[in-house]
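seq/struct pair 1
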Amino acid sequence: MTEVPEHLLKRSRDRRAALGLGGDGGEGGGEGESAAPTPGDSGAEVEPAAGAGAAAAPAAVAPAEVEAKPPEPVPPYVEAALQRRRIPYWAMPVVGLLPIWIILYAGSLSPADTGEATQLDLGAEIYTLNCASCHGGGGGGGVGRQLSGGEVLTTFPNLADQLEFVAAGTQGFGTGTPYGDPNRAGGQRTAGSFGNMPGFGDSLTPEELLAVVRHERETLSGEEVPPEQLADDETLTWPDGAPIFEEGGSELLGPDGEPLFDPTTWRLVAPAP
């Protein structure tokens, strides 16, 4: 063992004396003093240094701050919808009533219904009562000839010729007498070749006669009358605007001046030459 220098032993004894830990023990006392226990001795209690537990324990890890994700961009169409100006609340009733206003406005553009029957309405009634039993309700024919599908217009291109035949009938024309358009496909019709048609010149007034002929031509056979030939009350006129019938005279005359039937106090006004 290495010998401890005397001056160091003396310094140790003086220090212990100052602290009241022992008297002069001489060199032997100094040597007999137990040495300070070391951490390696089994019986020594080693007081852990302050803060050793804290040092030994793992330091608490502070939670890492989660970085906030940036907001996703708004689609252009959504942004445009958000920035679009809204309809004011006061305008909503106006928008809701707009369809009703349009319907009322459209209705005001049509002629007002006077409730009075037109010539075509009257002609449909007369046809049902006097003609449908032979020619069919829709003019398809039967005992009498077909009137629908343009057939009556092929036979009578001129309204006055049809008026004459309906007023006189088969008996008035004479059985076997040709009538109608000579240029018709198949030639003219012959009175009595398809049954006998009664004349209505004595049972119908001129206005009723015109009404039923118009129904046969326009409703059943599809003739389109130019608007300028219709008066405000849908009454048919000649192309020059003159009425079909006028009062005066003792006969109903056709465009050629020949009588349609007799007696009557009405005349058929011919179109202007």
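seq/struct pair 2
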Amino acid sequence: MTFVQLAIGLMLLLGGGEALVKGSVAVARRLGVSPLLIGLTLVGFGTSTPELVASLEAALIGAPGIAIGNIVGSNIANVLLILGLSAVIFPLATTKQAFRRDSGVLIGASVLMLAVVLLGAIGRTLGALFLALLAAYTIYTYLTERRMHDAAALVHEAEAEDAMPRRDVPLWSGLLLAVGGIAAVVLGAGILIDAAIEIARAAGLSEVVIGLTLVAVGTSLPELATSVMAAIRRHADVAFGNIIGSNIFNVLGIAGITAVVTPIPVPSEIAAFDIWAMLGAALLLVLFAATGWRIERWEGGAFLALYSAYLVVQLAPGARAALGLG
């Protein structure tokens, strides 16, 4: 029964996340919002709504291992699993202009997350700081790209175009789709968290491990769907931009909002290993992308191999204990 609940939760997250993005994008277009702003906000951050709701729910029920593990694990899965799979399907090209600024923000956010994890807790003041940084980054990016309309602006406009419904949607229909998507995500996240806790107890796994793996991958399904479909359509820049934008929002937005609502203690296991894995994945992404400004198929394969190794560390009996990770 628990696995049935898990499957229902995952389907609600995937369907709800997709409906939320498409509905909100359709409404924004009907209201005359520019494709640039839509791509930068609704699409770039909208696919991370399942992570936000799941981390909030976990924090509020006193499961910080799932709340923090979901954020860190989602960023690891976004790069190693989702970007890796997308690159294997079709090499992902980017440009200096589109990548240089956002990759710098991604590394900066990852280092900031490392610092607060090593502190042992994320309080309301730090959460508010995260949100202020996210707002500053978003406003600066929008104003810069609107003025220059460079390659980065074209990427965000392409993200908006890819997220648009395939036919014209009336305003009321877009609103209904967005509201229904939010309801499905909230319901699905609750079901997923409950099922994940039960599975952790039955399998003898910690909530941290479940948050880093099962919950993280489950809440990343909208990013997976968006990036893989973009790769299949040969929209490599959209797949790239989706992952970088999602990872920035996961740290600054999700950790920030969650900490403002309720301060989050950070489990020591995450500080010992997983936050370093998250930073390493971000650095490897930048390294691969900067050599030729594309992720080749073999580099995508390397990402997938590294994620497989990460899962072995998490799920193999005694692997974490053997590494001194609890």
